[in-house]
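To the wet lab folks,

You asked to see what we're planning to order before we commit. Fair enough. Below is the target structure as tokens, and below that is the sequence we designed to fit it. If anything looks off to you, flag it before the synthesis order goes out.
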């Protein structure tokens, strides 16, 4: 491990934790203000925002450890898992499924808008920038397709298992996350990056390694959410 790797690790995990605090903070504020009726729509918007951000951030491949590299969309992982946990356990498995389906539809809309904007004729002064713009946004559009496919499979499984398992945070997150993130990686990376990155297997290993290393932070995020929002079992089915 190089010194640059040692330097980048706390930055990556620090970024992931800051994203979680920013995403969870609005839920905590709504709860503290006594506006419980707003928690469901705010939580759903929070979750969809995190997924959309992750699509664009995944266009950048960042350094990790040694030869390992990672799509930067992983920084939203702990935040999105903890928000979905809140929605599923506070409002029920059925609500969790609907949030996943609506989020998938909206990610498809992101892809459609990307496609339309890329193919719209550029202004004359913009023409030199069209190619780099299309390169970045085109990857984001492809990532959108990969995200939708992987997302529906892995998140539907995650909602099902989190709502079925008993026990505390360790049992729920510790059991559901590793399987869900493996499914997500195996589906997402080939669709999003095949033919784009030189070693797709290394990228898959890297993303899975980073997500596995984020499991303790995800457990902490879920635990903090449950303490702050005081939820334990679903009140709606």
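Sequence we intend to order:
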């Amino acid at each position: 491990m190089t010194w640059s790797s040692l330097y980048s690790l706390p930055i990556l995990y620090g970024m992931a934790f800051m994203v979680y605090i920013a995403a969870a903070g609005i839920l905590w504020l709504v709860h503290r203000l006594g506006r419980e009726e707003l928690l469901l729509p705010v939580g759903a918007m929070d979750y969809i925002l995190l997924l959309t951000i992750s699509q664009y951030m995944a266009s950048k491949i960042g350094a990790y450890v040694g030869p390992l590299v990672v799509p930067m969309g992983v920084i939203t992982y702990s935040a999105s898992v903890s928000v979905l946990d809140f929605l599923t356990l506070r409002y029920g498995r059925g609500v969790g499924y609907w949030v996943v389906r609506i989020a998938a539809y909206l990610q498809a809309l992101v892809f459609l808008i990307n496609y339309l904007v890329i193919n719209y004729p550029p202004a004359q002064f913009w023409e030199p920038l069209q190619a780099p713009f299309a390169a970045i946004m085109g990857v984001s559009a492809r990532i959108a397709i990969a995200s939708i496919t992987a997302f529906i499979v892995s998140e539907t499984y995650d909602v099902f298992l989190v709502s079925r398992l008993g026990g505390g945070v360790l049992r729920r997150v510790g059991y559901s996350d590793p399987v869900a993130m493996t499914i997500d990686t195996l589906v997402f990376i080939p669709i999003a990056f095949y033919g784009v990155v030189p070693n797709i297997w290394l990228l898959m290993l890297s993303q899975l390694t980073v997500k596995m290393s984020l499991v303790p932070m995800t457990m902490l995020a879920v635990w903090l959410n449950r303490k702050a929002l005081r939820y334990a079992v679903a009140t709606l089915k």
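Structural context that might help your review: The chain has a mean pLDDT of 80. Helices lie at 3-32, 39-57, 77-91, 93-119, 127-164, 169-193, 200-213, 215-229.

Thanks,
Computational group
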